[in-house]
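Problem: given the chain below (80 residues), write out its structure.
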Amino acid sequence: MKKIIFGLLFLAVSLFAKIDLNNADAATLATIKGVGEKKAEAIVEYREKNGKFTTIEDVLKVKGIGDKLLEVIKQEAEVK
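Solution.
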């Protein structure tokens, strides 16, 4: 019974956990709705060239990411 409760708790936490734009790899970033593989790779490339994002809005500096996608990213990601 404890294993079931622990498993459900882990699942609940992982479902609501936000992705950190500064530490996630491209595969993880690609799981954000609307991002996909190419934009995820662009996020990682931008981060490697320019340093960590200081605000979630900094992701707008990545080619291919606009205001509409930013609103989705804000719900699923964060900057730590």
